[in-house]
Design a protein that fits this description.
By secondary structure, this protein is of the alpha+beta class. It has seven helices and eight strands. The chain is globular, with a radius of gyration of 16 Å. It starts with a helix and ends in a 9-residue tail after the last helix.
Length: 210
């Protein structure tokens, strides 16, 4: 994707779904991020997260997210309800080829991530927000494929990916947490743009769980 097209995507926020609004992280989100990521039930599934997650961690996260957005190498978004503005969680799209130390040269690849505060679990918010970012990735950022890794025991996250049409590409992936400790077993899922487009025109083409 050319630089001009990537730059144009920064003007497209907020993304709006039937129940949610997704907008780039900003300084007022600091406390909400601490509440989300300092919860062990959330943090234990996120291998890239620093731990313990503090106010300084949140400020660093927002600063890096702002820089990534300005450089169009990543989109880290707050999820909130449209009705009341209640904080729900975060969803992200990272373009690894534009990292400072990239592990891939594939500029058509994006990495999807999401996290929801426990009190909002079970309402389909992760799926709704992630579906919006998937559409943004394929239609606006013009990516060809998306990737996401879910730990083996994270059943809820795996269901979100399967609802969106992701399929396991690499099984038995071992992820070492950023905060240390033993590697955890997971699976890397992929979604190709052609498969996503086919599912939009023919929902029966999607064979995953409902």
């Amino acid at each position: 994707m050319c630089e001009t097209n990537r730059k144009a995507t920064t003007t497209m926020f907020p993304l709006v779904t039937p129940r949610l609004m997704l907008r780039p992280l900003a300084s007022p989100d600091t406390d909400a991020l601490v509440r989300l990521y300092s919860n062990r039930d959330v943090a234990r599934w996120l291998s890239r997260l620093p731990w313990p997650f503090t106010l300084d961690s949140a400020r660093t996260m927002i600063r890096e997210a702002t820089t990534d957005l300005e450089r169009t190498r990543g989109y880290f978004l707050r999820i909130e309800t449209r009705a009341s503005g209640t904080f729900v969680g975060t969803v992200s799209l990272r373009l690894p080829a534009y990292d400072d130390e990239p592990w891939t040269r594939d500029v058509t690849l994006g990495i999807l991530g999401y996290a929801v505060v426990p009190e909002q679990h079970g309402r389909g918010f992760a799926t709704e927000a992630a579906a919006s970012v998937v559409q943004f990735a394929f239609e606006n950022v013009h990516l060809h494929r998306l990737r996401a890794t879910a730990l083996r025991d994270n059943i809820a996250s795996r269901r979100v990916l399967e609802r969106l049409g992701f399929r396991i590409r690499y099984a038995d992936v071992r992820e070492v947490p950023r905060y240390g400790g033993p590697a955890r077993l997971g699976d890397t899922y992929m979604l190709e743009r052609d498969d996503w487009q086919a599912a939009q025109t023919n929902p029966q083409a999607r064979t995953g769980p409902p």
